[in-house]
User: Which sequence fits this backbone?
């Protein structure tokens, strides 16, 4: 496409298809138009709704302070797209440059952006998952249904999995005055994302707010009554929790099944792409017409040893979408890499939790400011002698400083005093992350290996 | 930069337009001469330092002999403990958190918005009372009384006491900005007396509010039942004093600088008159273009830190020149152009980090209300002096008087 005018022609009359009509898909579509793409633009989404914002679903919506169907994402500009909503993409023909839809339609493209995101991991036993009163929380419909059930005043809510979503749900339940049990396989809530030192604080917060927190246990079975309503859960420690509302919060599954057999480097860990959001094929060769952004993408990050990172973060979806859009409309030398430092926030039990970098890579943690006891602190994570991540509980305003330390690969532990240093911060502690081979429910950053096409995964060829 | 860099900033002759000095200063992003403070003038460096936990706002950590230098307002001879502006965490966090509880989200999300109508009424009353439109001093007749009235209503000062409150506030404000020709001893005594009387008055009001609490901030601070408990009377007094001083001078200057800026740009004034909603982006641009707090002279280093290749030693005094960072061409395109349509507007006018302006939502609403109403109601307003006479203070910079005229006041 160098110098022959083909890029200009593509920008004028080309066809771009965006698969995924949530945050990344919408922001990418807007960015494409912003950057002068005047051709045809089609946005495909499996949900029937216009793009909406998900963070409120586990917060304000469950509290009854916001209505699930009023969480539409603000539009930054008009996108003049053909919206194919309520129909999922079902297949990809890379050679023929066509996306096949679940209704049998085919949509041709010159360039494709995949932003299909993730979905809630369902309860593995299908019959139990079908019981009335068993929910997951990912979509607007999930949020609306769950909010109605919470408003109806269940006798006891059981949340299975104490990652960020599960913990936020438990927090909302307590704020509504509902009895809630949380069952977590790990040693503490949030342990997968933030480690055991911070997990212990989170456990304390839950218990202080009246959550019946059970850690180190698995739910072995859900039991229904004669009318098919859930009535109890059986735990691996032999105990039983009587409950009429169960929320499965076991993390997310990437929406890549529709790409199976397409030849694209996509699998359960996401879609491998380069730093410019271009997807790899299964042979490890980068494509030039297929891009990925948002939760479903995984791409190498120079600050983190070029590990392929999948980030289930709101901010990541926004910037990655913009970068993908830019690169889709650029000659190779004008492309820009996606190198944003990961960041996410959560709000639970009256505490604002914010993190930068990749805490779960850390082996040690230094409580640089504040104290664990007060549940107000900044924890800095170290990995091989450098700062790799930081988390703040009600201390978010300091994080830009720690982000700079991460970006400049500053030494760990930081060799200087700070304001508000307590005895907690005298020396680094073992960050106490669980064995990575044991799945936890919480990590929103997944280190998914080094090899672009990830040969450890089995790609089943279609022919 | 020449030897006299700091003197140029402080030189009264440069008060009307300090921006060329800042431009010169930015050529040396970390400026230091002799035993003076380390002066930081570029956007990114200032912003980094505002989030840097190795920087203290507590003067007790200052070991350099120069202190804040001559730009530091005269020290209050006061028995009160320092307000949270001059404290570090955790004390700062505790007091600010407690003060925020009855003021802003999450506990009081409607406090400021609930004052919208009241602000409008106060502004209308002041404009109605302008009288002779041939010569108006906008500072005396409008910018000064407005924020004091707002703080009285916020704290819950009874209407019948507002006049006394205004007198104390005026005296204290004047003491922050000493007239070099006035008798310093006499001025000092006046300020001291005003502080004492104000303190006694507030202590009495707090006592009364503890017994009969209302919806006002003072009542809620005195009777708070949150995790941090209620404030002690001493803490309440120093917090109330902080709100009064910090929320007053700055807002006066924001409004006065705003009207001055608009009167120099009749086209923008006309746009605001036709579209009051323009006030929102306009006030943001104003906070960038003419910030009411020009520089922060009270920070100090807890360790040796390196900024742009310069090692600033532990215990040194830092000046963060916000107004210069706001005009840094490395950050803002055409920084010397006043452009209310500017979209990329993350200015430093309200600071950043843990000490970022506590009253920001109120200050914004006050300035938006004031400027849009002045624009709407004044017929053909114009400056009578340009530049107007400025106050001495180089930190809280603004006109002492703003003589203007107009052809009449619209209803």
Assistant:
């Amino acid at each position: 496409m160098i110098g022959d005018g083909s890029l200009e022609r593509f920008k004028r009359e080309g066809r771009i298809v965006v698969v995924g009509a949530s945050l990344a898909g919408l922001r990418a579509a807007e960015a494409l138009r912003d950057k002068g793409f005047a051709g045809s633009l089609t946005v495909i989404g499996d949900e029937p709704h216009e793009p909406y914002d998900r963070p409120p679903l586990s917060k304000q919506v469950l509290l009854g302070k916001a209505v699930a169907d009023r969480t539409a994402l603000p539009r930054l500009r008009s996108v003049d797209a053909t919206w194919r909503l309520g129909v999922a993409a079902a297949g990809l023909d890379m050679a023929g440059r066509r996306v096949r839809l679940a209704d049998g339609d085919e949509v041709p493209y010159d360039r494709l952006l995949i932003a299909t995101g993730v979905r809630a991991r369902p309860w593995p036993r299908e019959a139990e998952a079908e019981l009335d009163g068993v929910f997951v929380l990912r979509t607007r419909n999930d949020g609306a249904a769950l909010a109605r059930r919470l408003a109806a005043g269940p006798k006891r809510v059981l949340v299975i999995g104490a990652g960020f979503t599960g913990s936020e749900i438990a927090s909302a339940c307590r704020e509504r005055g509902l009895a809630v049990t949380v069952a977590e396989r790990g040693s503490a809530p949030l342990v997968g994302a933030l480690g055991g030192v911070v997990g212990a604080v989170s456990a304390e917060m839950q218990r202080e707010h009246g959550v019946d927190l059970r850690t180190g246990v698995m739910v072995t079975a859900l039991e229904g009554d004669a009318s098919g309503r859930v009535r109890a859960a059986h735990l691996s420690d032999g105990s039983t929790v009587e409950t009429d509302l169960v929320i499965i919060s076991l993390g997310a599954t990437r929406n890549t099944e529709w790409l199976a057999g397409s030849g694209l480097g996509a699998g359960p860990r996401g879609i491998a792409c380069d730093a410019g959001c271009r997807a790899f094929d299964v042979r490890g060769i980068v494509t030039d017409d297929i891009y990925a952004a948002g939760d479903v993408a995984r791409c190498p990050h120079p600050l983190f040893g070029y590990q392929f990172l999948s980030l289930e973060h709101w901010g990541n979806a926004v910037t990655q979408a913009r970068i993908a859009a830019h690169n889709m409309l650029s000659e190779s030398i004008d492309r820009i890499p996606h190198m944003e430092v990961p960041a996410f926030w959560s709000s639970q039990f009256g505490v604002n939790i914010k993190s930068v970098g990749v805490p779960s890579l850390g082996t040690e943690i230094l409580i640089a400011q504040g104290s664990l006891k007060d549940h107000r602190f900044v924890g800095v994570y170290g990995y091989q002698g450098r700062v790799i991540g930081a988390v703040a509980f009600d201390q978010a305003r300091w994080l830009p400083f720690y982000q700079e330390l991460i970006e400049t690969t500053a030494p760990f532990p930081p060799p200087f005093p700070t304001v508000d240093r307590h005895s907690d911060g005298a020396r680094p502690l073992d960050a106490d992350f669980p064995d990575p081979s044991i799945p936890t429910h919480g990590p929103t950053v997944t280190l998914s290996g080094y090899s672009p096409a990830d040969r450890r995964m089995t790609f089943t060829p279609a022919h | 930069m020449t030897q006299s860099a700091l003197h140029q900033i402080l030189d009264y002759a440069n008060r009307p337009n300090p921006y060329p000095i800042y431009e010169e200063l930015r050529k040396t992003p970390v400026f230091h001469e002799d035993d003076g403070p380390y002066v930081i003038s570029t956007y990114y460096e200032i912003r980094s330092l505002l989030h840097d936990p190795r920087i203290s706002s507590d003067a007790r950590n200052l070991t350099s002999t120069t202190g804040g230098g001559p730009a530091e307002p005269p020290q209050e001879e006061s028995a009160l403990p320092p307000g949270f502006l001059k404290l570090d965490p955790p004390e700062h966090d505790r007091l600010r958190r407690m003060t925020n509880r009855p003021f802003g989200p999450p506990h009081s999300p409607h406090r400021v918005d609930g004052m919208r109508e009241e602000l409008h009424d106060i502004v209308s009353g002041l404009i109605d009372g302008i009288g002779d439109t041939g010569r108006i001093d906008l500072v005396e007749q409008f910018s000064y009384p407005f924020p004091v009235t707002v703080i009285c209503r916020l704290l819950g000062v009874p209407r019948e006491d507002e006049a006394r409150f205004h007198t104390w506030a005026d005296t204290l404000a004047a003491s922050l900005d000493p007239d070099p020709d006035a008798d310093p001893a006499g001025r000092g005594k006046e300020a001291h007396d005003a502080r004492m009387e104000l303190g006694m008055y507030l202590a009495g009001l707090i006592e009364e509010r503890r017994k009969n609490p209302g919806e006002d901030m003072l009542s809620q601070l005195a009777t708070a039942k949150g995790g941090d408990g209620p404030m002690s009377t001493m803490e309440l007094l120093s917090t109330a004093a902080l709100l009064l001083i910090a929320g007053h001078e700055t807002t006066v200057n924001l409004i006065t600088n705003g009207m001055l800026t608009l009167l120099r740009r009749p086209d923008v004034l006309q746009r605001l008159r036709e579209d009051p909603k323009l006030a929102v982006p306009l006030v943001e641009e104003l906070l960038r273009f003419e910030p009411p707090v020009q520089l922060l002279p009270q920070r100090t280093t807890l360790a040796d830190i390196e900024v742009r290749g310069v090692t600033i030693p532990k215990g040194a005094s830092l000046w963060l020149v916000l107004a210069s960072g706001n005009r840094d061409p490395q950050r803002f395109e055409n920084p010397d152009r006043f452009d209310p349509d500017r979209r990329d507007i993350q200015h430093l006018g309200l600071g950043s980090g843990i000490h970022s302006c506590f009253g920001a939502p109120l200050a914004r609403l006050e300035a938006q209300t004031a400027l849009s109403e002045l624009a709407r109601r004044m017929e053909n307003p114009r400056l009578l002096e340009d530049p107007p006479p400025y106050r001495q203070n180089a930190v809280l910079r603004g006109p002492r008087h703003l003589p203007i005229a107009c052809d009449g006041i619209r209803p």
